[in-house]
Each structure stands twice: as C-alpha cells, then as structure tokens.
Amino acid sequence: MELLKLFIAIFVLYALKPVLVYFYDHKKLRQYPNQNVLSGITNLASMRERARKFRTRELYIQHQKHPVIRVAPNMLSFRDVRAIKDIYGFGSPCQKHEMYQLQNGEGHMNILNVIDREDHSRKRRMLSHAFSTKNLEAWEYKIADKVEKLVAQLDRRAMPGTSVGPPDDNVVDLRYWFNLFTVDAIADIALNELLGMLDSGSDTVKVSDSHGEDRAHRFIMEMHEAARVKSKIIGTLDWYHILKEVSRVFSCYRSQWNCGRNVGRIVSCLADKRLHRYGKGEKLDDFLSCLISDKQGNFRGLNRGELEAETSILLDAGSETTAIALTHLLYYLIKNPACFLKLREEVSGAITGDKVAPYSKVKNLPYLKACIEESLRLSPPLPRGLERATPPSGAHIMGEFIPGNVGVSVPAYVAHRDPNLFPEPEAFLPERWLNNENTGKMRDAFIPFSAGGRACVGRNITMIEQQILMATLLHRYDFSLPSPDWTLQNEEAFNLWPVELPVRIWKREVEV
After folding, report:
1. What's the whole-model pTM score?
2. Which keywords fit this entry according to its UniProt record (predicted)?
C-alpha cells in the first residue's frame, strides 16, 4: 500500500501536475507556439531537441514563422534583436536562469555560471585586470610560442609548391590541431603550465590518482564526452538529477559521466601544481596569480574550491570557444577564395619577415577583424539563447509584459541572421562590417560573447589568438578542402563543435 501511495505521488508530481499547470496557464504562456508538441507541458521535451545535431538551426527555421516560441513550459525564445537589450543589456532586471546551477553541479560557481549578481561582480573585478588587452599583450609571447609550435607541426605535414596536390595521407584535421593549440595556450596563460600537446600531437594529460599513480586522460575528448551527456538532460530541470542517476545504469552514459570526473581530476591536479609553486615562493605572472593576490600583491584568501572552479572554466571556455572560432574562420575563408586572397594581401603586407605575426602589426588590420567577426556572426561558438529569468515581479520585453520567473533568451544564431540588419544572412561577407552605415545597429545585434554586464570576460583573448594565428597561417600556407563541395558538419552540445576540418596544406615560399 505504501508503495502504491508513493507511485501515485510521483505520478501526480511529475506527470499530472505539468498537464494541469499547462491548461490552468496562470502565466498566459499558451498564447505562444510550442517548439514541439510537448514543449508547453514538460521540460522532458528538451531531450527531443537535443537529439538533433544542430538544434539551434532547427529553432531558427521555426523562428522564421514565429517571433516568440515556447521552448519549455516556463521558457520563451525571442527572434527580434530588440529583445537583446531588454534581456541581456545593462540595467536589465533579468538574471541568469537556474539552469546554470545545474551546469555547475555541486561545486563552487565560476564566473560564467554564477547567478548572484554581487558574487558575479566580485569575480569580474578580480579577473578584469587579467583579461584586459594591455595585460594580455604582456602574455603575447606565450601565444606566439604556441603558434610557433603549431607551425612546426604543419611544416612537417605541408607540401612544397602549389602545382601538385599531396596524397590522401597528407590530409590534416585542423579542428583537432586548433584545439591542441588553444588548450596549450590557455594552460600557459592561466597557470604557467606547459602541457606539451602541440609537441606530442596528443591531448593526453597524466595526473596522479588517489594512490599516487599516474593515469593518462585525454583532456579534449573527455571534456567533449562530459559535455555531450550533460547537455542531453540539462534542459529537463526538475528531472535532471533523476535522469542523471538513471543514465548511469547504461555503460555508454556511465563512461561519459566518468569523463566529467576525469576532467575534474585534471583540473584539480593542475591547480595543485600551480598552488604548490606559489607556496614555494615562485613569482608567476598568470591568470591564477590575479585570483591569488590583487594588483597590490595582497593575498585574496579565496578558498581552494573557488580557485579550482575558476581554473576549470578558464581551461574549458578559454580553449573550446577559440578552437571552434578558428575552425569556422579558416573554413569560411577556404570556401570563399576571394576573401582568402584579400585577407592574405592585407596580412602579408603587414608581417613580411615575421615567422609569427606580432600582435602589434595585426591588431588594427580592418579586413582581418571583419573576417573574424563575420565568421562569429555565421557560426557563433555558443549559438543557442543563453537563458535568463525575469524577476518575480515580471519584466517588459519589447514593451510586452512577461510574468515573473519565466526563462527568456535570444539565440545568437537567430539574431545574427536578421535580414534587415544582415542582408544575405547565410553569405560570408566580411565587407558588411566595413564602412557600413548600419554598423552600429549590427553591433547591437552581434552577440557571440553575449551582451551587457554578463558578457564574456574573455573576448579579448580569443580575438588576440585568432588575429595572431590566422595572420600567420594565411601568410605561410595554402589550404584546400577534400573537394569543392565539401561542407563542414557541426554538432551542438553546449557549444557548436565542428566535427572535423580535413585540409591539405601547401607551404608557400615566403620571407621569414
């Protein structure tokens, strides 16, 4: 009898209640079309959308007919770029959605997923100096070192001249090499850690287990596997912890959850090493030093958990998004040879005689910046709508009142395709960013780094890395895709991962 009562209680809570809430509709959300047949009733509907390889693209197609779509029982997606200011802008009453707590798990909140405004402001103040362009320029030598290591690997795989194509075994997956580059770079910049991934051509990292034995883990692969499994159920909210435990019954999902633990061990090990060096009195100039001490050298007293949380997001977001951006940028340039050659002419005129492009010579190149921004417009590394929640009293979005505690978002992928601001939205047209009378309005709708007070604090570093590396590669090499009609495939978990970028590489005769 007790078991029957428990079953009835669970049924009412998880099955009957959502249906009753849907029809009662006290927040008046039924006026908006559903993303799929169950979106208005249960958060489980999010799993249907996650099953799509590129779910935000599918949402974009739906948004062609509907300006506002109900993507979950208590969440709305907006198409109109005017909603960006109301949802993400400075002064917006909306704050990060509770989903960010699930993304974080049980540990300390980091600067990306912290919900509390005051706590976020505290974290941002700590890191603002480290992420300033002036400070990052002081660490340019770390980026240049990794560019030089990548160039050395590509030189070994490139063919001389351009008249004869290399055999198939000379195809290089630059998506993978870009990921090695960004992990090596951010580990050095954040922790003064030399992982050596570019030297070895592998993402393997060795860490000590609880018994003091070294175990090898594939950092990039395990980060991806952990993100895959979490992203499949993150949108289920109340169901999340139940589904997490149920999924562990299946070996394939259990191994993916274990990948998340392994990534945590790697982060903990690297933080240990860095803090041990600090304890020995080493004066190291890196991101973590900005968390350990302030600009005057005063000890901040942060606990170990918070230091690990910030280390984790630096290694993850600080590598993934830039690798994604680099992959899409090179792909679009190869697919648009006129843009490729125009950009080469610009960068080669600036860096003749340099093996690695100095940032001082490329940071103000207008066409280089336009190409980077156009690639970020077409393929933002985070394409989905970053979830915010209206305050308990509700909020006005584009003049329309939205009740309290409703999730709201504008997908970057959708905003970047507004035909009124971006004519021919599917075309790669860097020129649209140059001498355009609508540039101001375009930038208001350009949100690859989000917007307002919660915009990505690391946007400067990704721009510096892209400018230095892409200028160097275009000056030094020619590239081709497997065939003229080959297209890049993407997989969307939290980020928009390019599956692979197989290219043939020719080394040019250039003065260095």
Report:
1. 0.94
2. Heme, Iron, Membrane, Metal-binding, Monooxygenase, Oxidoreductase, Transmembrane, Transmembrane helix
Q: Is residue 122 part of a domain?
A: yes
In this structure, is residue 459 part of a structural domain? yes
**354 located within any domain:** yes
Q: Is residue 3 part of a domain?
A: no
Q: Name the residue range of residue 354's domain.
A: 21-507
- From 347, 329, 365, select the one nearest 510 (Cα to Cα): 347
Supply the CATH number for residue 212's domain.
1.10.630.10
Number of structural domains the chain divides into: 1
Alpha-carbon distances, residue 505 vs 163, 431, 447, 458 (angstroms)? 12, 27, 33, 31
DSSP state of 506: E
pLDDT (tens, 9 = 90+) of the chain, 512 residues, equals 566 666 566 656 666 777 877 888 899 999 999 999 999 999 999 999 999 999 999 999 999 999 999 999 999 999 999 999 999 999 999 999 999 988 776 668 888 888 888 888 888 888 887 787 778 888 999 999 999 999 999 999 998 865 445 455 579 999 999 999 999 999 999 999 999 999 999 999 988 766 667 789 999 999 999 999 999 999 999 899 999 999 999 988 999 999 999 999 999 899 989 988 988 988 888 888 888 887 777 888 888 888 888 888 989 988 999 999 999 999 999 999 999 999 999 999 999 888 999 999 999 999 999 999 999 999 999 999 999 999 999 999 999 999 999 999 999 999 999 999 999 999 999 999 998 889 999 999 999 999 998 888 889 999 999 999 999 999 999 999 999 999 999 999 999 999 999 999 999 987 66
Are 476 and 507 a contacting pair, CB within 8 Å?
A: yes
290 marked as binding residue: no
Q: Which pairing describes strands 502-507 and 204-208: parallel, antiparallel, or unpaired?
A: unpaired
